[in-house]
Amino acid sequence: MSDGFLPYGRQWIDDDDIAAVTACLTSDFLTTGPRVDAFEAAFAQAVSAPHALSCHSATAGLHLAYDALGLGPGDCAIVPALTFVATANAARYCGADVVIADVDPETGLMSPETLAEALQRSQGRARLIAPVHLAGVACDMPALSALAHDHGLSVVEDASHAVGSLDETGAPVGACPYSDAAVFSFHPVKTLACGEGGMVTTQNPEIADRVAHARSHGVVREPDRFERAEGATEPWWYEMQALGWNYRMPDINAALGLSQLNKLSRFAQRRRLLASVYDAALSELAPLVQSPAGRAGVDPCRHLYNVRIDFCAAGQSRADVMTALKDQGIGTQVHYIPVHHHPYYKALYGEQTLPGAERHYARTLSLPLYPAMSDDDPARVVSALKAVLGL
Ligand SMILES: *Cc1c(COP(=O)(O)O)cnc(C)c1O
What we know:
Elements: H1 15-25, H2 34-46, E1 51-55, H3 58-68, E2 76-80, H4 86-93, E3 97-101, H5 112-121, E4 126-129, H6 141-150, E5 154-158, E6 181-185, E7 198-202, H7 205-214, E8 219-220, E9 239-240, H8 251-261, H9 264-282, E10 289-290, E11 305-309, H10 311-314, H11 318-327, H12 343-349, H13 355-363, E12 364-367, H14 377-388
Parallel strand pairs: 2-3, 2-4, 4-5, 5-6
Antiparallel strand pairs: 1-7, 6-7, 8-9, 10-11, 11-12
Helix pairs in contact: 1-8, 2-8, 3-4, 3-7
């Protein structure tokens, strides 16, 4: 058992990760080099997707995916209330509006029911939906995509939390059987760390092609695709055919990502084991504290261990519980403040109350979960929580 401070999440960097980055630093490529290609190929294979395109972050990946699907002014994107703001913000970068869907109060996920209600509010302007696999629990993609397709909408999975998770068919999240694209994050608190990094996976070669160009200014370098005659004779020629961005992943980050990806099965195994140790220990604290909700048939590689606590019944505020745990060396966090509570979205769309999101938000608390925790750490966390709640 570690006596040190347990943050709610943390990266795990080994000597071989450091060696991989060091080797990159002394190579010819610091950005857009062979490690980017190798990381993309290995990631595509890991999630059984035909195409994987790296980019600077999941935020950039969401923007690229929405853009590739034609999201623009006059349209709206439907995103769940319980997510990091990036899922919504990327639609705003496209000039589109956001309709914030309610979520299941237990899982915090967009459900077919909450999507149907959001579709009504979108008044025919929705162009895409972006369900989020919160904490690594896969949404009901067959049902969500069936509903989206009935309305002619595209589907982008925000899979920032879900590398290593399996859906109800046993397929890895990212294979995209029910979506146009999935987007992953390699922020250090996520399951794999690049520093900053993201990946877009898709089965659609046209989306892959648009993302590949838009992430680098919309510049085309393939001679057979040049529109201008100069391309045939001028060896320096490249041409910008559409507006893009600099959303490229540096080779340095890809070196780390590739090295981390080699450990995905080990990381995922640790996360599943630690979650099951927590689940068993927490049964003692029921019904005041409930382990994170799952969905039947899916196998999450949990990014967060987001328990549900009835703070009212416990007679304590969440702030007091967080502070008391912190004093005992245990870090916690709240995932998430609902998107519509943020001043920016409140100013745009007014005061909204989404009952499922409010109920989820009122009870959620993420306890420490990361692969370097010891097998005994969950017991330390649970006994501290028990004491703090006076149980
Ligand atoms: C972390 C996160 C993002 C953004 O990821 P970055 O790589 O930091 O841009 C988007 N959506 C969700 C659900 C996230 O947790």
